[in-house]
Hints:
Elements: H1 2-42, H2 46-70, E1 77-79, H3 82-98, E2 101-107, E3 114-116, H4 118-135, E4 143-151, E5 155-162, H5 169-174, H6 190-200, E6 205-210, E7 214-222
Helix pairs in contact: 1-2, 3-4, 4-6
The chain binds adenosine-5'-diphosphate and magnesium ion (MG).
Adenosine-5'-diphosphate binds near residues 132 and 164.
Keywords: ATP-binding, Kinase, Nucleotide-binding, Phosphoprotein, Transferase, Two-component regulatory system
Protein name: histidine kinase
GO molecular function, one term: kinase activity
Amino acid sequence: FNSLMKHKQQMESVSHLAAGFAHELRNPLSVIRGFIQLSGLTNNIEKYYKTILSEIDRMNEIIEDFLSLSRNNSRKQVQEPNELFHSLIPLIRSECILRNITFDYQFEKTNRRIYFDKSMIKQIILNLLRNAVEAFEEKQNDKRFEIRTKALKDVYQVTVSDNGPGMEKSVLEKLGKPFFTTKENGTGIGLPLCKKIIKDHEGEFYIDSKLGEGTTITFTLPFVND
Length: 226
Ligand code: ADP
Ligand code: MG
């Protein structure tokens, strides 16, 4: 009986996941369709390029998240972290400009190195950015998104914060669980995936959020001894 229940629960989470996946892809897809249709009417596709491209990128991110859930062979390398963080600035900046969010960053320079997979850490940052973007209410003034890094004694510490609506206690408590989402079209794999990636890197992952004040995510990546 127990194993039957377990099987039932597994099937439920698989179908939940599949539904979330489909919904999340459908959104950007319908935006793309709409914009191509519009550009046909106005004969002015240039105007819509940006949105179409960013929606296609969004679809790629979603697919990437799903693939990563099951991927085990990561491509870790011993490398210096700042280059990666700097390379993400243009992408984050343009996303923020598009949504009227002020982006601020401060990366502490370090000569020390970390054993990490660039694309995985990039994925974490993009997921956190996405969550912040989705959390902000349209009418909020002075929206801010911020990334700070610090070289501590043994670890590189990354802090990603927004001054959005924050989370209720009941939401915070459920956050660890896979597929937990408060969004109509959410998948609930963003934060669990971030946690999994950091665990694979032997770092720590913390979530701190206050209702009405914002959300701060902190994670660490251990330096290699050299
Ligand atoms: P999804 O984004 O698909 O809902 P996540 O795992 O990324 O899944 O996030 C889970 C939930 O955590 C979200 O549905 C939302 O309620 C909450 N959340 C995550 N990030 C933030 C944030 N920056 N501000 C407010 N709520 C957040
Ligand atoms: Mg998310």
